[in-house]
Amino acid sequence: MLQYSNALDTMFQALADPGRRLMLERLCRGPASVSELGEPLKMSLSAVVQHLHVLEQSGLVKSEKVGRVRTCHVEAGALRAAEKWINERRTLWERRLDRLGAFLAETPDHEKPKE
Amino acid sequence: MLQYSNALDTMFQALADPGRRLMLERLCRGPASVSELGEPLKMSLSAVVQHLHVLEQSGLVKSEKVGRVRTCHVEAGALRAAEKWINERRTLWERRLDRLGAFLAETPDHEKPKE
To answer: CB count, 10 Å around CB of A22?
Structure first.
């Protein structure tokens, strides 16, 4: 449970930076080298490497060095875990609102709880 | 675009803390007062208020003071925005993998790109 919680901490933390989200967006269109990742961001290579490190720590991205080139790709499973967490909470809340709406629709005005 | 980006920054930042996620989970089951929110977290009231401030800044939670009691509730629209962002990227990546799978299935072995 704690491990799962830590995974969500680092994942949401990784997503909280606009530069890292841009790197992730780029990788969702296909694997890229570190320099390809940095190009549209107008960032120093060392800044790109730092952001990449955060993305890898979070499990959202993996990279592999072949020869002198490090290639990065998205780990869709990790993205799915973050999405699932949000989706479950949102659904819970929206169901609650639906039940409340149904209750109010079925209850005569004089029996409704006061605001 | 920048405003949208800032909204995502603060939203994912708010979700990156396990205490704030627990507060959000509690609120997804229904509105709660600040002290009700803090109770299961074993946190000082001032820590709860700080976390609540981050959640409100992110747009995920709203609160309203009536008399002496501040009641908090979830803003499902904000949760939906965070979920949508992740879902769109994940779908993009998974479609890419599907197309790659289809391409490899249709391509005779001797024409496949080398690893």
So the answer is: 16
Torsion on CA atoms B92, B95, B99, B101, rounded to nearest 10: 120
Q: What is the pTM of this model?
A: 0.82
> Does ipTM come in above 0.85?
no
Torsion of CA B77, B79, B84, B90, to 10 degrees: -170
Tell me the chain A residues in contact with residue B93 when contact means C-beta distances shorter than 8 Å: 27-28, 74, 76, 79
| Of B12, B27, B76, Cβ closest to residue A12 | B12
Q: Which of residues 34-73 of B touch A (CB under 8 A)?
A: none
- pLDDT tens, per residue, chain A with 115 residues: 445 568 899 999 999 999 999 999 999 989 999 999 988 888 889 999 999 999 999 999 999 998 999 999 999 888 888 899 999 998 888 888 788 788 778 887 777 666 5
Report residue B112: phi and psi, to 5°: -70, 145
What is d(CA A110, CA B110) in angstroms, rounded to the nearest whole number?
A: 77
